[in-house]
Design a protein that fits this description.
Layout: E1 3-8, E2 30-34, E3 38-47, E4 49-52, E5 56-70, E6 74-77, E7 80-86, E8 90-93, E9 96-97, E10 101-103, H1 111-126, E11 135-138, E12 141-144, E13 150-156, H2 157-160, E14 165-168, E15 175-181, E16 188-189, E17 195-198, H3 204-209, E18 214-217, E19 224-226, E20 229-244, E21 247-260, E22 263-266, H4 279-290, H5 297-303
Parallel strand pairs: 2-4, 2-21, 3-5, 3-21, 3-22, 4-5, 5-6, 5-7, 6-8, 7-9, 7-10, 12-14, 13-15, 14-17, 15-18, 16-19, 18-20, 19-20, 20-21, 21-22
Antiparallel strand pairs: 1-13, 11-12
Helix pairs in contact: 1-4
Length: 304
């Protein structure tokens, strides 16, 4: 199995990791963002907003605790919504909009900048890798555990379907970054019955509370990514079309497009906050941060 691991510690003076930090500043409060179209039905975004650079098509798909922002047309059939912004029009077919309805004008989101920032962030994350193998707990089960503030793993896309259970250990403020590689031109997905365990717990509330410390990064996935089931963590896949026919995602989804009936709960991955809007500047900052990867927490504590 092609699995690699990189232990890392990031200790940056003056860059505290906020418990409520967004993946990037513009998307604070957003559970889902797609560069292209978002199509959802028979479910809801339970908390957080929906941002889409393309058309938004929702059928009996509620967004009651956040806004819907579309760079195209918002097609709403049934369902309940709070505030809706659509650059090119709103088509209401039995939907209940309880807040504001805005067509045209300045969008709350700068889609071009956001797309660049998320793509650059994904590239920075994917630039890290090593050759240390994670633990195989039992056949079909993988345990990810490290002794550092940031533990980065690389998993080959072809191995995802072979993992029945992914067990993650998180101590104190530790975080897990999972880079999925070798997925160009392929349909990528998790096997039926896939399960995530965090700190040896199957309790949903415990796993939800820790989901902002887990990130799946799919830089090379250029076709379809199937997310059927329940997941705890943020999925960053700006080149992938997401299909989610069942289950829910606790964390955040940032992708090329989405089609399905998955439910979303916001708890996005924490990254060092920055107010710098330029993608190139953010990339330089993050490269500097991740340039410190490989400095173990134990080594740091030993020097204090």
């Amino acid at each position: 199995m092609k699995l690699t691991f990189l232990s890392a510690c990031v200790t940056i003076a003056g860059l505290a990791l906020s418990a409520n930090a967004a993946l990037i500043p513009q998307l604070e409060g957003y559970a889902v963002y797609t560069a292209g179209d978002f199509t959802g039905f028979w479910s809801d975004i339970h908390d957080g907003s929906l941002g889409s650079g393309g058309n938004v098509t929702l059928t009996s798909y509620d967004v009651m605790n956040g806004s819907v922002v579309s760079g195209g047309i918002a097609n709403l059939k049934d369902g309940e919504y709070r505030d809706v912004f659509a650059k090119n029009g709103i088509v209401n077919n039995g939907a209940t909009i309880k807040g504001s309805q805005t067509i045209g004008g300045t969008s709350p989101l700068d889609f071009s900048i956001i797309n660049d920032q998320l793509s650059n962030l994904s590239d920075v994350f994917s630039s890290n890798g090593s050759n240390i193998t994670p633990t195989s707990a039992w056949n079909g089960a993988i345990r990810l555990s490290g002794d550092n503030d940031l533990n980065v793993f690389t998993i080959d896309a072809s191995d995802l379907k072979n993992i029945q259970e992914l067990s993650i250990d998180l101590d104190e403020d530790e975080k897990i970054l999972i880079n999925v590689t070798n997925a160009s031109g392929d349909v990528v997905g998790f096997r039926d019955g896939f399960n995530m365990v965090i700190n040896n717990s199957y309790d949903e509330q415990i796993r939800k509370s820790l989901s902002n410390r887990v990130l799946f990064n799919f830089t090379e996935t250029t076709e379809e990514l199937n997310l059927n089931g329940t997941f705890f963590g943020t999925f960053l896949a700006m080149n992938a079309d997401i299909k989610g026919q069942s289950g829910n995602l606790n964390g955040g989804l940032f992708a090329k497009s989405f089609y399905g009936q998955q439910q979303f709960h916001i708890n996005s991955f924490d990254v060092p906050p920055t107010s710098v809007p330029e993608p190139a500047t953010i990339s330089m900052m993050l490269l500097g941060i991740f340039g410190l990867l490989g400095i173990s927490k134990k080594k740091f504590e030993h020097k204090k």
